[in-house]
Amino acid sequence: MTDNQITSRSPAADAATNGFLVAALYHFARFERFESVREPLQAFCDENGIKGTLLIAREGINGTVAGTDAAVEKLLAHLHAMPEFATLEHKESRASKMPFVRMKVKLKKEIVTMGVEDIDPNRIVGTYVDPKDWNALISDPETILIDTRNDYETAIGIFKGAVDPNTKTFREFPDWVRNNTGLHNKPKIAMYCTGGIRCEKATAFMKEEGFEEVYHLKGGILKYLEEVPAEESLWEGACFVFDERVSVEHGLKEGNHKLCHACRNPITAEEVTSPHYEAGVSCSNCYDSRTEEDRLRYRQRQLQIALARQRGVKHIGS
């Protein structure tokens, strides 16, 4: 597709007809000039009406963005034109509404934070497994299946038979591995995450720790839900995503979860009926850990959001 073809579409018509295109992407590469790229990349996204988050660091790029089809395709072409990201891959899904409030391009020490020095997926990494071959691997009794995501993500969906480390952050994962000597009891370790990036570092770390047969799901849960039919799937539940859709299901259709804007945990329709649920203020996950002063502050924020809606504008905290 040429640049003229990309820019000839009407953004308003594109969004009205198709909703918004969501692109999840990451790429590990030596990106020494990352600091100088932040402002031009932010400006490019702003000029094209793209929203979301892109993290850039010396080790590469990671993020999820949304916009009209034309705008997102233009951004991807812009990134591919950079020598560091010529082979960057991405995963696409759709959102009926813009799933982000703003665009942020952030400078980071790591594009996914593990906190372990010298873990380089460009040097050592596990074996990629395509979604079509994943069921056979994780059904093998000689395989230990590990979910590398955090507890609020695993709470709404997980692969059948997976070990859940119950981590609050990815920084806890290395210690969890080192404290679980039983992981050496079987020869194969299979790992997965939302889009694949955490597993790049997790498998690299496992290899450095002496595990030999280490595998990870190529493209992550998102690619699996896109390609594997529901009737053949070993996935149970929904997949948490880091935008206002909250979750997606098979075929990458939008899920039914809401987000508690007090604790950022996903909540089900049943949890919305809890006496501890108050929109934007509390849910059953966080009610006991918040004070009345916290809830008063959250209610004031919700009031400001409601007033902004009445004026026809979007409150930055909504």
TrEMBL record:
<protein>
    <recommendedName>
        <fullName>tRNA uridine(34) hydroxylase</fullName>
        <ecNumber>1.14.-.-</ecNumber>
    </recommendedName>
</protein>
<feature type="domain" description="Rhodanese">
    <location>
        <begin position="139"/>
        <end position="233"/>
    </location>
</feature>
<comment type="function">
    <text>Catalyzes oxygen-dependent 5-hydroxyuridine (ho5U) modification at position 34 in tRNAs.</text>
</comment>
<keyword id="KW-0819">tRNA processing</keyword>
<dbReference type="Pfam" id="PF17773">
    <property type="entry name" value="UPF0176_N"/>
</dbReference>
<dbReference type="GO" id="GO:0016705">
    <property type="term" value="F:oxidoreductase activity, acting on paired donors, with incorporation or reduction of molecular oxygen"/>
</dbReference>
<keyword id="KW-0808">Transferase</keyword>
<keyword id="KW-0560">Oxidoreductase</keyword>
<dbReference type="InterPro" id="IPR036873">
    <property type="entry name" value="Rhodanese-like_dom_sf"/>
</dbReference>
<dbReference type="GO" id="GO:0006400">
    <property type="term" value="P:tRNA modification"/>
</dbReference>
<comment type="similarity">
    <text>Belongs to the TrhO family.</text>
</comment>
<dbReference type="InterPro" id="IPR001763">
    <property type="entry name" value="Rhodanese-like_dom"/>
</dbReference>
<dbReference type="GO" id="GO:0016740">
    <property type="term" value="F:transferase activity"/>
</dbReference>
<dbReference type="InterPro" id="IPR040503">
    <property type="entry name" value="TRHO_N"/>
</dbReference>
<dbReference type="Pfam" id="PF00581">
    <property type="entry name" value="Rhodanese"/>
</dbReference>
<dbReference type="InterPro" id="IPR020936">
    <property type="entry name" value="TrhO"/>
</dbReference>
